[in-house]
Amino acid sequence: MSFSQQELQRYSRHLVLPEVGLEGQTRLRNASVLCVGAGGLGSPLLLYLAAAGVGRLGIVDFDAVDFSNLQRQILHSEGDLGHPKVDSAKRRLESINSDIEITTYPTRLTRENALDIISAYDIVADGTDNFATRYLVNDACVKLGKINIYGSIFRFEGQVSVFDASRGPCYRCLYPEPPPPGAVPSCAEGGVLGVLPGIVGSLQAAETIKVLLGRGEPLIGRLMLIDVLRSDFRFVKLRKNPKCPVCQLTPSEIELIDYDQFCGVGRGEESEGADLGLEVTVVEVNQLLKQSDRDVCLIDVREPEEYAICRIDGARLIPLGELPRRLEEIDSTSEILIHCHSGGRSLSATRFLRRLGYPRVRSVKGGIDAWSKEIDSGVPRY
Questions:
Q1: pLDDT tens digits for range 59-111
Q2: In sequence order, what DSSP letters do the residues of 89-101 get, joined into one string?
Q3: Alpha-carbon distance 16 to 288, whole Å?
Q4: Do residues 241 and 176 touch, judged by C-beta distance below 8 A?
Q5: Do 172 and 139 meet the contact criterion of CB atoms below 8 Å apart?
Q6: What is the rounded distance in angstroms from the CA atom of residue 136 to the CA atom of residue 257?
Q7: Domain with residues 31-265, CATH architecture
Q8: Which CATH number is associated with domain 269-374?
Q9: d(Cα 320, Cα 316) in Å, to the nearest integer?
Q10: Which active-site residues does the annotation give?
């Protein structure tokens, strides 16, 4: 396939590289990459793949652009607020390179649609922010024989690897089981330095391009650990797990499961909380706090930095990590309501206190974020 004068000029810095040249640029033009997530990691990843001339890009994301995204999700702008991320991503990418084809999937990746979507692409780049989707992407890629370009971020730290079950371990070899629900805070709860996803997503783009070109040494069998606070890059060797529940099976034996239930989130967590009477809605909390004859103790288990951003009047701050040594501050005879940002940490705290014999403790479902949306819009969201 020949290149136009405009294309030769656009890709000239690639073409003079012996490792790329016309042959390599043709490979990029003929390639297809699916990016799962158009957020912090997907932004730099998609920008650089589009600029590099990868011929066909797919974008899976069901979310809309929010103010809190703009600190790090550089695909989107203030004019995109409230619009689907896949739409603003496509507009931005087309403004960079009108020669490539972009297909959007404004939906959540599920076990029902994952195989159909992923099968149409050469490589999958995982830009997700939750364990359930990471396990789904991994299992579907192993079943379909696709390479999975993995990246993750938290606070000041990131991870990058390339999972190719035909030549090395898969994600399940590294993490056979997900952490307990609430054990690992989300970016909304734990925070993330805005430039970190730019670094990690760019490295994912580099690994994707290397694999497509068949050049260099991809991170197959290696995990790159990044700490931007210490300016530290380390590498850990990974080996295939001979007892891996996925990549040791034949493709026909691999079945996609209910990953929300596997990770203890979504419907499984909600039903468990409801069955045990562990949760209370923000509407109910608001009513309880207004009743002067009720002895109600409202506890905030977020971190001090979150408490400084916003708070519910009357809430006592006891960060989750400090809870075991501050039990004397909690009256077990009171009606105890615990909240965090969105409900995960408070549910863990509630279960912990129930086991210690606090019978009247419940978790505020949806946390202070739900309080802001449903009760008091004057409480800032973050």
A1: 999 999 999 999 999 999 999 999 999 999 999 999 999 999 999 999 999 99
A2: HHHHHHHH-TTSE
A3: 70
A4: yes
A5: yes
A6: 8
A7: 3-Layer(aba) Sandwich (3.40)
A8: 3.40.250.10
A9: 12
A10: 187, 340
